[in-house]
Amino acid sequence: MLHTFRDHLTTEQALAFANILPAVTRAIFVEDWHPSGLLPPAFPDRETLIREVKSVRRHHNLAPDSAIEDIAAALRRSSIDERELDRVLTGFPEGAAAFWRPEHVSARE
């Protein structure tokens, strides 16, 4: 899920986002990252994002359809200062803030 989000950010944006993450989550976020310097693709609709999440490590990926909401809810509850998250997402591409927006967070919170 974190890699999917990262794939739609520039290198500068990804590094700014990584700076607000706790150490282990930051390590996962940058794992196997090879910035190209090219403009990243725009954030697609939610269904496409879910397919992208499920395509990571496809042969052993058990991500449910709610994976984005589940991880966003877990990070919001435990690890991320929401004011910092909102500050960092300001100026990010359209769709970045919606990825983390509370109304998209699972009702199972």
Describe this structure in words.
The chain has 109 residues and is mainly α. It has one domain. Helices cover 51% and strands 0% of the residues. It contains seven helices and no strands. The protein has helices at residues 2-6, 11-18, 23-30, 46-55, 67-78, 82-89, 96-100. It is globular and about 35 Å long. The model has no long low-confidence stretch (mean pLDDT 87).
Sum up the overall morphology in one term. Answer: globular
Largest sheet features = none
Number of strands: 0
Distance between the termini: 18 Å
Number of domains: 1
Q: Rg, please? A: 13 Å
Helical proportion, percent range: 40-55%
Low-confidence stretches: none
What is the ordering of alpha helices and beta strands?
Answer: HHHHHHH
* Number of continuous helical runs: 7
Q: Give the overall average pLDDT.
A: 87
Strand content: under 5%
Tell me the structural class.
mainly alpha
